[in-house]
Design brief:
The chain is an alpha+beta fold. The chain contains 21 helices and 20 strands. It has 3 domains: 6-159, Protein-Tyrosine Phosphatase, Chain A, CATH 3.90.190.10; 189-346, Orthogonal Bundle (Arc Repressor Mutant, subunit A), CATH 1.10.10; 393-572, Tumour Suppressor Smad4. A hairpin with a 2-residue loop joins β1 (6-9) and β2 (12-15). The chain is globular and about 70 Å long. It catalyses: O-phospho-L-threonyl-[protein] + H2O = L-threonyl-[protein] + phosphate; O-phospho-L-seryl-[protein] + H2O = L-seryl-[protein] + phosphate; O-phospho-L-tyrosyl-[protein] + H2O = L-tyrosyl-[protein] + phosphate.
């Protein structure tokens, strides 16, 4: 079944939406029932029995309320001799939560044991933290009642589910231990009784040894998340979870790194466990070896189960590169362990606190050399650059249009307005959790910026949402920078937490738009808005003057706005005034007059000035400027 549908126990499968539509594979595995749990769950195949649960992969989604009907559906299917596929979109979070709840009910295992057993057959499953909390709550409150209900209504469980799950856990652990012992025996046989000089010679062509060793580990299926990326087996995934994450499991997430340390003789049983050092050593080896090349556009580092993708470089390609570089012979390449200074540098990953795994996802920190350069200017104060010809004349132009710098910023927590402010600083503002205090903060934002704080979470009534929002705040310390001028609204994301947005310049209309860190993006185009407003009439769609920022969760998507933890709405003050007047006029006139000096002279003069003056924009639409 490859990386698709995975058999967990007899008659029970876990998969993704593609698996649910693969009729041939479903029939081959005896699947007769499909439990679909995602936003647009609906029956697809005529000859299947369905239970469809509409649910998002969101922190606020209540799956616990559906546990009983899902357990009933799965159990009756299996008792009737059928097979049940439980799936969501990716087969990672929602469907895993439902499946684990069922396994808990028909065995004596807790949620962590059932989840670990599921990971033994599908290594990348990971319910978001909210779903994990619901599983924990289920175990503490309803589990015994549901187990009694299953026994009362359906009798003794005829399946050997508990034995199968325990076998999965024990078998995986045994294979991993055997693999590690085999690696140690192989190393001992190569080095036993041999002089140290010969042992050093054995390390030559370390890249060759790493290549062979790593391919063997991928093919062994002993390490969760270490899998081939393509059928040609020229690329592979390697798990890359940060050791500080709340659901980090050293035995699982660090297993491949530990195996490399054992193979290299850098770790033996009884030594102090150092998963970060193990990870760094293998990273050094991969980076130094000519056999491997990271495929950054395939790597996923800000998901709940992050991974990197590496390509195995063919020997002919290596020879070509080496010949171009300096004509050196590939046989001279030696795999070297990281020096202590290299390890220190490589281990400087972003700090990780207790995370809300379902929504709080972080992007990599900027390169260290960038962070250490105190002379890097911010674009809010940088001088015109030859590389950015459209910036010429920026300072003098803005002095005459400072009225466009004011923004109305509104904060919504779980759909409820909790605060708003109108900015006054012409340089822009910074939205963050606390007042910047450290000396290093000057690097990330000019001191002249107005500082706007997120409102306190005390305004949130639901205790769980309050707790999760507070955790999310831990990833928004540096916040975002906002700047408004006659051309539009610009943003620069500094925080580690992900930020998504919608506005009239967004690239994608049908999927979330994510802000990259440390890049300036134009999120609202004032001229475009007024051009749309000129052509508006009551039969059309009134153009939206607002920008919406969503912190920590994907947006826009199918999840209702009231379910989003933190939404921030941004609007230019002068544009808002025009919109209010335009709406008043539209209510009494079928067409929107462009200029009417007899009514609201000041507002319409602004409107006329903006619509009639189409100067070249200071930034191209959606232009991202690397700072």
């Amino acid at each position: 079944m490859g990386n698709g549908m995975s058999k967990v126990v007899k008659g029970l499968y876990l998969g993704n939406i593609r698996d649910s539509e693969d009729r041939e594979n479903l029939q081959r595995n005896g699947v007769t029932h499909i439990l679909s749990v995602h936003n647009r769950a609906e029956p697809v195949l005529e000859d299947m029995t369905y239970l469809c649960i509409s649910a998002s992969d969101s922190s606020s989604q209540n799956l616990l309320q559906h546990f009983k009907e899902c357990i009933k559906f799965i159990h009756e299917c299996r008792l009737g001799g059928g097979g049940c596929l439980v799936h969501c979109l990716a087969g990672v979070s929602r469907s895993t939560t439902i499946l684990v709840a069922y396994l808990m009910t028909v065995t004596e295992l807790g949620w962590e044991g059932c989840l670990a057993a599921t990971k033994a057959v599908r290594s990348y499953v990971s319910p978001n933290f909210g779903f994990q909390q619901q599983l924990q709550e289920y175990e503490a409150t309803l589990l015994q009642e549901y187990r009694a209900w299953i026994r009362r209504d359906y009798g003794r469980n005829p399946f050997r589910d508990q034995e199968e799950l325990q076998g999965l856990l024990a078998g995986q652990e045994q294979r991993r231990l055997e693999q590690q012992l085999g690696s140690r025996d192989q190393q001992g046989a190569a080095g036993g009784g041999v002089a140290s000089s010969q042992a050093r010679m054995c390390d030559r062509n370390g890249g060759r040894r790493l290549r062979q060793w790593l391919i063997e580990q991928i093919d062994s299926d002993l390490y969760p998340g270490l899998i081939w990326e393509n059928e040609e087996k020229t690329m592979f995934r390697i798990p890359w979870k940060h050791a500080g994450k709340q659901d980090y499991n050293q035995e699982v997430d660090a297993s491949i790194f530990k195996a490399w340390a054992v193979f290299k003789g850098k770790f033996k049983e009884g030594d102090k466990a150092e998963p970060a050092t193990w990870k760094t050593r293998l990273r050094c080896a991969l980076n130094k070896s000519p056999d491997f090349e990271e495929v950054t556009d395939r790597s996923q580092l800000d998901i709940s189960e992050p991974y990197k993708v590496y390509r195995i470089v063919p020997e002919e390609e290596q020879k070509c590169k080496a010949g171009i570089a300096n004509g050196s012979n590939l046989t001279d390449v030696v795999e070297m362990d990281c020096s202590s200074s290299a390890i220190d540098d490589l281990m400087k990953e972003p700090p990780c606190v207790d995370e809300y795994l379902g929504i709080i996802k972080r992007s990599p920190s900027p390169p260290q050399e960038t962070c250490r350069n105190p002379l890097i200017p911010d674009w809010w104060v940088q001088q015109p650059s030859p590389a950015l010809p459209l910036m010429n004349g920026y300072s003098s132009y803005e002095q005459h249009h400072s009225g466009y710098s004011q923004m109305v910023i509104s904060f919504y927590y779980s759909g409820r307005l909790v605060g708003h402010i109108t900015t006054s600083c012409t340089e822009g503002c910074r939205i963050s959790v606390g007042q910047p205090s450290s000396h290093g903060e000057k690097l990330y934002a000019p001191e002249a910026l107005e500082h706007v704080r997120f409102p306190s979470v005390d305004a949130i009534q639901n205790d769980r949402q309050k707790q999760i929002t507070r955790k999310l705040f831990g990833h928004l310390e540096r916040g975002v920078l906002l700047h408004s001028n006659k051309q539009g609204i610009f943003i620069k994301r500094l925080c580690q937490g992900r930020v998504f947005w919608s506005g009239n310049t967004m690239v994608y209309k049908d999927r979330p738009n994510k802000l990259d860190r440390d890049e300036v993006v134009k999120i609202f185009d004032t001229n475009l808005f007024f051009r749309d407003l000129q052509f508006y009439n009551n039969q059309g769609h009134f153009p939206d003057s607002r920008v919406v920022l969503c912190f920590g969760e994907e947006f826009p998507d199918a999840v209702p706005l009231r379910c989003k933890l933190i939404l921030v709405q941004v609007e230019q003050l002068c544009v808002r005034q025009v919109v209010e007047e335009a709406r008043k006029t539209c209510s009494s006139s079928p067409m929107l007059p462009i200029v009417d000096e007899t009514q609201h002279d000041q507002v319409y003069r602004i409107f006329q000035d903006i619509c009639g003056t189409h100067q070249r924009p200071l930034f191209r639409e959606n232009q991202q400027i690397a700072v």
